[in-house]
């Protein structure tokens, strides 16, 4: 029987906070973001139909490195960093 290591294979709140910190900075509407629950490889960012952005959180990558990779991917899609106002 397979033993699950949730913190390594399934996204958690910290992962989502990192995703939202970056997507908020780039003005990506949270309603237009989809994040699969299972982490995978080096992660992936792609645009789906109807301008939805799918973000696959990587397995085993440091948080800061992933945030930088996510930001670069959003920039390559045409998003620009904005001042976040709370």
Describe the structure.
36% of the residues lie in helices and 12% in strands. α2 (13-25) runs parallel beside α3. The chain has one domain. It has helices spanning 6-9, 13-25, 63-76; strands at residues 33-34, 44-47, 53-56. It is built from three helices and three strands, in the order ααβββα. The relative contact order is 0.21. With 86 residues, the protein is α+β, with helices and mostly antiparallel strands. A three-stranded mixed sheet has the order 1-3-2, covered by helices on one side.
SSE order and pairing:
Layout (H helix, E strand, L loop, with lengths): L5 H4 L3 H13 L7 E2 L9 E4 L5 E4 L6 H14 L10
Parallel strand pairs: 1-3
Antiparallel strand pairs: 2-3
Helix pairs in contact: 2-3
């Amino acid at each position: 029987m397979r033993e699950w290591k949730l913190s390594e294979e399934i996204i958690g709140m910290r992962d989502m906070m990192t995703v939202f910190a970056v997507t908020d900075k780039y003005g990506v509407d949270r309603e237009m973001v989809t994040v699969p629950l299972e982490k995978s490889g080096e992660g992936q960012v792609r645009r789906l139909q109807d301008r939805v952005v799918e973000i696959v959180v990587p397995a085993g990558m440091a948080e800061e490195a992933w945030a930088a990779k996510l930001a670069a991917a959003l920039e390559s899609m045409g998003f620009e960093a904005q001042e976040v106002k709370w």
